[in-house]
Design goal:
By secondary structure, this protein is mainly α. The strands form six sheets. Strands 3-2-4 form a three-stranded mixed beta sheet, with no helix packed on it. The protein has a two-stranded antiparallel ribbon with strand order 1-5. A hairpin with a 5-residue loop joins β2 and β3. α1 runs antiparallel to α6, α2 packs across α3 and α7 packs antiparallel against α9. The longest helix is centred in the middle third of the chain and has 39 residues.
């Protein structure tokens, strides 16, 4: 059978990529938005997020005027295109301050490509994030010196272009037509080249198929692969069953009876809302559908666990290869019996031979596949351990910083009885302090979130330790043998411990 076909794949991939890129560059969308306050793009800047954050902070401090009008061009279809003042408009929106708009009508539409539309939205989204960070008081890196110098030039050029467009909007009518024509030519060229490349790839693959008979049948899985897939199916069924039963429990708790039962517990009552009052004209269909959905989720969960149980049992059961019966026919002439020379007819002897293990899936190598999986599991465990360790370290650093913010004072002491006739001075726990030589108010511990970051650091360390232990056990298991004995070696050893492979 011929190997897996790869003829024409490169041309097909190239053709598909060029066609998609050309389609994204075609000017098919009308520029602008029906909403006047919705910005469609801004003048380019270096490090735009940092630039916007600095502008926002300067506007809050009064170094840059906040009140400035936004110039908007309105197309014949009622779409609005911002033509100046975009950065300040975004800053005012983050401050929840109104903006003043000046609108001029133009007699032509401006078309853009999907790629240009997406680029403008991403640009505005980045500027909005910069303003929101500055408004929230979060630290933002300052603009670099080289980017700052470049931004001065870019800002001056943008101001000149915006002023020209606002004074004479009709001057861009011919330019917009020329740019749209060029966009169509470029997009059409790319899509044409992509179509030719795809056609060449299809022709090459067709010729290859004519010379090589390709079987359309699916690959037959080996016994080892079937066993592994049954294990995976069992685990997936268990996960689905857990989700179904959880949905059933959540639905029961969210019902009127479940809410009333939870509200009967004093600690849960403040966190559970009271059930709504039943109305006379309520939707009775919804009242029937919700119990049916909950019942279906519960039955599905129970059925999934049942399926997982017998699928797991089938995966654990070893399938024995049936015995192959072969007759002993040596081809030798048997002796004769008696003086008359009648041939001696012996009964046919049948002996059962155990057939050696062999894969039933063509070129599938289960040993190599299992080795790859073991290495992948080990690498994944180390990756999880590294990520969890880094997260734990980061949270530990935060915990240390928060601890430095805590006001440490001497704990209030009071006289306490420690035995018959004996007294000593001790910390007064009733005043809400941690029992130590120096006391810290518990309210300040909660405010600075020390316990939260400390708990996250401990959880990250626990996950990292578990992942390292799992990776060590996987490596130890793959190197020590045991259940990792190759299938061919394992099936060649009989029940009496005799190795028949030698």
């Amino acid at each position: 059978m011929p190997e897996k076909q790869e003829k024409g794949t490169g041309n097909l991939a190239l053709g598909g990529g060029l066609t998609a890129y050309g389609a994204s560059q075609a000017p098919v969308l009308r520029h602008g938005s029906k909403d006047m306050s919705r910005m469609q793009g801004a003048s380019p800047k270096k490090q735009p997020g940092r630039y916007q954050a600095e502008l926002h902070q300067a506007m809050k401090e009064g170094k840059v005027p906040t009140e400035s009008s936004v110039h908007v061009l309105r197309t014949p279809s009622g779409r609005h295109i911002n033509a100046g003042g975009t950065h300040r408009q975004i800053a005012r929106e983050a401050m929840n301050k109104p903006s003043e708009y000046k609108v001029k009508d133009i007699s032509h539409e401006i078309h853009v490509s999907p790629a240009q539309k997406l680029k403008g939205k991403l640009q505005v989204a980045g500027l909005t994030r910069g303003s929101k960070r500055a408004e929230a008081g979060k630290p933002v890196k300052p603009v670099g010196p080289e980017a700052r110098s470049a931004n001065r030039i870019l800002a001056h050029a943008a101001d000149v272009n915006d002023a020209r467009a606002w004074e004479n909007p009709s001057m861009f009518k011919e330019g917009a037509k020329v740019m749209r024509h060029k966009g169509w030519v470029g997009a059409g060229t790319l899509m044409g080249v992509g179509a030719l490349s795809g056609a060449a790839g299809l022709a090459e693959r067709h010729e290859w198929k004519k010379k090589n008979q390709v079987s359309k049948g699916k690959r037959i899985m080996s016994d080892a692969e079937i066993k592994r897939r049954k294990k995976i199916g069992s685990h997936l069924s268990q996960a689905g069953g857990a989700v179904g039963l959880t949905a059933l429990g959540g639905t029961l708790l969210a019902s009127r009876g479940g809410r009333n039962a939870m509200r009967a517990i004093p600690k849960l009552r403040p966190h559970v809302a009271a059930p709504k009052t039943l109305k006379a004209d309520r939707d009775k269909i919804q009242g029937v559908v919700n119990p049916l959905l909950a019942t279906g989720a519960g039955l599905g969960g129970v059925g999934a666990f049942n399926f997982a149980s017998y699928t797991g049992a089938e995966a654990r059961k070893r399938t024995m290869t049936p015995a192959v019966k072969k007759s002993l026919d040596s081809g030798l002439e048997m002796g004769y019996f008696g003086e008359e020379g009648h041939p001696l007819k012996l009964p046919e002897i049948e002996v059962a031979f155990e057939k050696a293990w062999e894969p039933s899936a063509g070129k599938f190598d289960s040993e190599k596949s299992r080795g790859k999986r073991a290495k992948g599991y080990e690498a994944g465990a180390y990756g999880v351990a590294g990520g969890a360790g880094a997260y734990s370290g980061h949270q530990a650093i935060k915990t240390g910083k928060k601890l430095t913010e805590l006001p440490v004072k001497m704990a209030p002491l009071s006289e306490k009885k420690v035995g018959r006739g004996k007294k000593r001075m001790g910390v007064d726990v009733n005043r809400g302090h941690i029992v130590s030589e120096k006391a810290i108010p518990l309210s300040r511990v909660k405010e600075t979130k020390v316990l939260r970051h400390g708990g996250k650091a401990a959880a990250g360390a626990a996950i990292a330790g578990g992942a390292l232990y799992g990776a060590h056990k996987i490596k130890e298991k793959s190197q020590s043998g045991g259940s990792w004995t190759p299938y061919a070696k394992r099936d060649a050893v009989s029940a009496f411990g005799i190795d028949h492979s030698h």
